[in-house]
Design a protein that fits this description.
Strand 2 and strand 3 form a beta hairpin. About 10% of the residues lie in helices and about 70% in strands. The chain has a single domain, classed as Porin (Beta Barrel), CATH 2.40.160.20. The protein has an 8-stranded antiparallel beta barrel with strand order 1-4-5-6-7-8-9-10. The protein contains 1 helix and 10 strands, in the order αββββββββββ.
């Protein structure tokens, strides 16, 4: 009997959290994660290789029609330069992007929700690399590069207005280097709806 009552209590709390999570309204979100950054060609003869980096960011958005979310997002990441043309190097890469994103939340008839999203924006890219041996230092920057991202993940309510979020983001920038800069990021975050 006690087990049955506990089971129904959990179902009730979960359904209440789900109902709250699907209501329209504003939200803020904070994210932290890890970045994997593609090698890039700085010129036709020079290439850069990066170590993994750390990313953090935040968003302000609005949920509408129960399943859709639109948001403005800012995020930043930094990674060390691993090599220049295969030789050891020091330096770092920083990328800060400003995005307008839209998401669709899938209703699984459970507290867990899956989402897909995409967005467009701009990125500020700055790289400073110095080869350990011979070679010229590389100092490149672009304050308004075109950027786009696609996202997928899941969220789970832990309170009537707080969700834990887990996701993947692909971020691409164009026209900064002689080859495209691509980032693959794995994120964990907290979303507060009000």
């Amino acid at each position: 009997m006690r087990i049955s009552m506990a089971f129904f209590a959990v179902l009730f709390v979960s359904s209440q959290a789900l109902d709250a999570a699907t209501e329209d309204g504003f939200y803020v979100e904070l994210d932290l994660g890890l970045s994997s950054i593609s090698d890039v060609g700085v010129t036709t003869s020079e290439s850069l290789d990066f170590d993994g980096g750390v990313t953090f960011g935040g968003a302000f958005g609005y949920r509408f029609l129960h399943h859709y979310r639109g948001e403005l997002n800012i995020s930043s990441r930094k990674a060390d330069v691993d090599s220049v043309d295969g030789g050891a190097a020091t330096g770092d890469l920083s990328v800060t992007n400003f995005m307008a994103n839209i998401y669709y939340d899938f209703d699984l008839e459970s507290p867990l929700k899956l989402y897909l999203g995409a967005g467009l924006g701009s990125a500020s890219v700055d790289v400073d690399a110095t080869p350990s041996m011979m070679g010229a230092a590389i100092d490149e920057s672009d304050g308004g590069a075109f950027a786009f991202n696609v996202m997928a993940g899941a969220s789970y309510p832990v309170h009537e207005s707080i969700d834990l979020c887990f996701g993947y983001r692909y971020l691409g920038t164009r026209d900064v280097f002689s080859s495209n800069l691509d980032l693959h990021e794995f994120l964990v975050g907290v979303r507060y709806s009000f």
